[in-house]
Model the fold of this input.
Amino acid sequence: MRPEAVALRPVEERDLALLRTWRNDTERQGEYGDFLATSRRNDRSRSRWEEDGLLAETRGTLVVTLDAEPVGEVQWHAVAYGPGNGVHALNIGICLDRAIRGRGVGCEAQRLLAAYLFAHSPVHRVEASADVDNIAEQRALEKAGYTREGVIRGAQFRRGTWHDMVAYGRLRTDPPAGS
Done:
């Protein structure tokens, strides 16, 4: 797999139906992304896309492509660490087609997303979490330059039970991934 074949691009209008399909496909989301009814709420992607192209500083979505073909999405949202502006981090998430998982696409997409967020916002911290049993995602985050910070007990309710998560962070001042 050629890492240069992985890219992120803004959501285009033609992608909105695809995003809706992806978000409602439990097979595609896999065991760590299936939130059952919570993910099937009223999809506001169209109204948000019309408002800001799904590219606001505190929340957004980009399409992950492999050889220019859409294969997934990355998202971010602000997480407050105090009152006022400038005291938030951006928490990221990713969902990829099952067929391309395990080929380095997720690692590269999450590395590219951190670079994008640092280039397009004043945020100092980008963070992510992975289920304690999701070893593949933990490895992808580490290879993408995120630092394992600890376990967050009972942080995520999914498939009817509470799950522990492993927290990861990347600071603007961290060295580039792979250096």
Remarks:
- The CA atoms of residues 151 and 166 lie 4 Å apart.
- The beta strands are 6-10, 55-56, 59-66, 69-80, 88-96, 125-131, 147-158, 161-171.
